[in-house]
Specification:
The complex is a heterodimer of chains A (333) and B (336). Chain A has 333 residues and is α/β, with parallel strands linked by helices. Chain A has helices at 55-62, 85-94, 102-105, 112-122, 129-142, 159-171, 189-206, 217-223, 241-246, 251-259, 265-270, 302-306, 323-332, and strands at residues 4-19, 24-40, 44-48, 70-75, 78-79, 95-98, 177-181, 209-214, 226-231, 234-240, 312-315, 318-320. Chain A is built from 13 helices and twelve strands. In chain A, the strands form two sheets. Chain A has an eight-stranded mixed sheet with strand order 6-7-8-3-9-10-12-11, sandwiched between helices. A four-stranded antiparallel sheet of chain A has the order 2-1-4-5, with helices on one face. In chain A, helix 6 packs parallel to helix 7. Helices cover 32% and strands 24% of the residues of chain B. Chain B has twelve helices and twelve strands. In chain B, a hairpin with a 2-residue loop joins strand 4 and strand 5 (77-78). In chain B, helix 5 (135-148) packs across helix 7 (167-179) and helix 7 runs parallel beside helix 8. The chains are: A alpha/beta (333), B alpha/beta (336). Chain A binds chain B through residues 50-51, 158-160, 188-194, 196-197, 200, 215-219, 221-222, 242, 245, 255-267, 270, 276, 278, 280-281, and chain B through 44-45, 166, 168-169, 196-202, 204, 223-227, 229-230, 253-254, 263-273, 276-280, 283-284.
Chain lengths: 333, 336
């Protein structure tokens, strides 16, 4: 029945705020607050949202850097929060992550070779030194770096090259699922284009699945098949990417897309109208009641501030969390 | 009118003396900004954008920097040959700057009001004693400036510290500070990059409206081409310490000429979809052993023998559109 590679159900992560000598908790940062989505095999799933929306926290939960407060994460049918020690080894071979800033995610005191070697040793992939070196050579070629780079240190590489090494490190264990947490936001556009091209090529070659976390909407448009829009720890709209951009329904999605400074004329024409009064993102410690976007929303009325709307499927595969949109769509039907 | 241009940079060269030798970072930059014009300066990391604006602001550290040749005029006054005292008067009054990261541009140990007060009082030094504003006058000026950037409750904000404000609010405070003395030129170094897109859109919108009503010229430095399209009238593209192309913004995006510019524009992902470009092969040059001639030639698909021998000069293609590339100029008629 269920052929999803990854399925996240009602994921919740609260970070307690502690004060004083006894570290008394006085509240929670509701970083992720009830998120559900599925990723199919060989699919690229996009997760967009502004800072503080909880998208990176989800990425970190998925590689078990954090444990969720509530909810389940099924990877290949197994709950990753309740893995046995043997299963954990399997899981870490299957799921890898590429971080945002290659400068701080690579150890400056280790050569590229020693960085790439570790996973091979831990997971007993290569038998001996020579075998490891052969694999590393292949890996570097895969990310379009010369094999000589294995003797270099991160400090002598450029940003784009470092990110290639970070991608190679994720590929060492031959994973089936890679989490890309803003992999190109620290890079220039021409370098970004090259990295994205590489990632797309690798995806086709190895039938990888990606969770692509980004705040750059145009980039998600080119990368992902499905996209979820997050705001203050909740998904407010989830749809096939093309539909999301050609027909955004939630006022927040519309505001977000119309805020992107664009380069081309056809993009300018394709922009939806803004549906926001401006204003800033509220604090996740004390989110607004009801729909979290209502203080900034130009459609908001009484019900929005009282009741949290459900994530409703308004069209096939297109889910929206908005009182007004789902009401309108139902009356059309 | 005596000076048509508020800022003129003519053939600027900036070198740095480093351990390995001399790093020729800026290699002949020309840049002109008319009065009231909003100009964008685009380029990728390490192309010399920041060094250029630091030179203009007079905050470049000399040494290690050396300026072997070049001229920078701000409204007819030669900045490079100005006394330190004069330069200090110009900074913050005739020319002001908004920095990239609003988190670090404000001092966390002074309240917003204290910092703002200094900015206004500093500009008052030029006036005689009767023209100077009183403490109360400065305070009123401060509050009206904060109202102008649409900050709610400015009376409260002047007693706040920067840590108590959000990123968007801090950037608004910085814009208010930069514009309070009615400068002639505003240099904005990636004013929205550190902020979220919805906040960035608000900030850019606000900045645009304010400079338009006040008639301030703007030099917007960024690597985000979308921001350039939405806020400027003319664009300069830098690569490897040289200006490779300049054009009115709409012409530039319709019809980019230089191979580097074409590669750069096609690298931008579009939200309307479509085929995604491969980016530009190679990496940015090493400034100690910079490529001879056109600095882009090792990465260029159209490189000809002359490209590595002689530096191409900016040549006019059509009104206002200049390109430094031999494809368009031919090899013989090389003149300004």
């Amino acid at each position: 029945m269920n052929n999803h590679l990854l399925s996240v159900d009602n994921l919740v992560k609260y970070f307690p705020i502690r004060v004083g000598f006894f570290q008394r908790p006085i509240g929670n940062v509701r970083s992720v607050d009830g998120v559900s989505f599925n990723v199919n095999k060989g699919e690229m799933f996009g997760l967009v949202g502004e800072s503080g929306s909880g998208k990176s926290t989800i990425g970190k939960i998925l590689v078990k850097i954090y444990n969720p407060t509530e909810g389940t994460v099924l990877f290949k049918g197994r709950d990753i929060t309740k893995l046995t020690k043997e299963d954990l080894g399997f899981f870490k071979k299957e799921v890898q992550i590429v971080f945002q800033d290659p400068k701080s995610s690579l150890n400056p005191r280790r050569s590229i070779k020693s960085t790439l070697e570790d996973p091979l040793i831990v997971h007993r992939i290569a038998k001996n030194e020579r075998d490891r070196e052969r694999i590393i050579r292949n890996l570097l070629q895969m990310v379009e770096l010369s094999p000589n780079y294995m003797y270099k240190y991160p400090s002598s590489l450029s940003g784009g090259q470092r990110q290639r090494v970070a991608i190679a490190r994720a590929l060492t264990v031959n994973p089936s699922f890679i989490i890309l947490d803003e992999p190109t936001s620290a890079l220039d556009v021409s370098v970004q284009a090259k990295i994205i091209h590489l990632l797309q090529g690798l995806q086709r070659e190895f039938n990888l699945s990606y969770l692509f976390i980004s705040h750059d909407l145009s980039l998600v448009r080119t990368m992902a098949r499905q996209t979820a829009v997050m705001y203050l720890g909740k998904i407010y709209e989830i749809a096939p990417t093309e539909r999301l951009f050609s027909m955004p329904l939630h006022p927040y999605t519309r505001t977000l897309i119309s805020s992107v400074p664009v380069v081309f004329k056809e993009e300018q024409q394709a922009k939806p109208t803004k549906q926001s009064w401006g204003g800033e993102i509220p604090s996740p410690v004390n989110p607004p009641s009801g729909c979290a976007f209502h203080p900034r929303c130009s459609l908001a009325d009484d019900i929005c501030s009282q009741q949290l709307p459900d994530l409703v499927e308004v069209m096939r595969d297109h889910f929206v969390r908005c009182h007004h949109v789902s009401f309108n769509m139902q009356s059309v039907k | 009118m005596k000076n048509k241009y508020i800022l003129e940079i003519r053939d600027l060269h900036v070198h740095f003396r480093v351990y390995e030798g001399i790093s020729r970072v800026i290699d002949g930059v020309f840049l002109y900004i008319k009065k009231g014009e909003r100009v964008g300066l685009v380029g990728e990391t390490g192309c010399g954008k920041t060094v250029t604006i630091k030179t203009v602001m007079g905050i470049l550290k000399i040494p290690p920097a050396i300026i072997p040749s070049g001229e920078v005029f701000l409204d007819g006054q030669d900045i490079l040959r100005m006394s330190q005292k004069k330069l200090l008067q110009i900074k913050g009054t005739e020319i002001s700057m908004i920095f990239q990261d609003p988190m670090n541009a404000l001092n966390p140990v002074f309240s917003i009001g204290e910092q703002f007060y200094d900015v206004i009082r500093f500009a008052q030094q030029r006036f005689s004693n009767d023209e100077k504003l009183s403490r109360k006058g400065i305070r009123n000026k401060m509050i009206s400036a904060l109202e102008e950037v649409r900050l709610p409750d400015p009376e409260r904000i002047i007693n706040n510290y920067s840590l108590e404000l959000s990123g968007g609010m801090r950037q608004r405070v910085l814009i208010a500070m930069a514009l309070v003395n009615n400068p002639k030129l505003l240099i904005a170094d990636e004013p929205g990059t550190a902020l979220d897109v919805t906040i960035q859109a608000q900030i850019l919108d606000l900045m645009n409206k304010l400079v338009k009503t006040k008639g301030i010229s703007v030099l917007l430095v960024t690597h985000n081409l979308g921001v350039i399209r939405e806020t400027t009238e003319r664009v300069y593209i830098m690569y490897g310490g040289q200006v490779v192309e300049t054009a009115p913004t709409n012409v530039f995006f319709e019809n980019p000429k230089h191979p580097y510019t074409q590669g750069l524009i096609s690298s931008v992902p579009r939200f309307t979809g479509g085929e995604f470009a491969k980016g530009i092969p190679g990496t940015i040059p090493d400034y100690i052993k910079a490529p001879s001639g056109c600095r882009f030639h090792p990465r260029c698909n159209y490189a000809m023998p002359i490209c590595s021998q002689k530096k191409p000069l900016l040549t006019m293609l059509e009104s206002g559109h200049y390109v430094a590339c031999y494809i368009y100029t031919g090899q013989e008629d090389q003149n300004e």
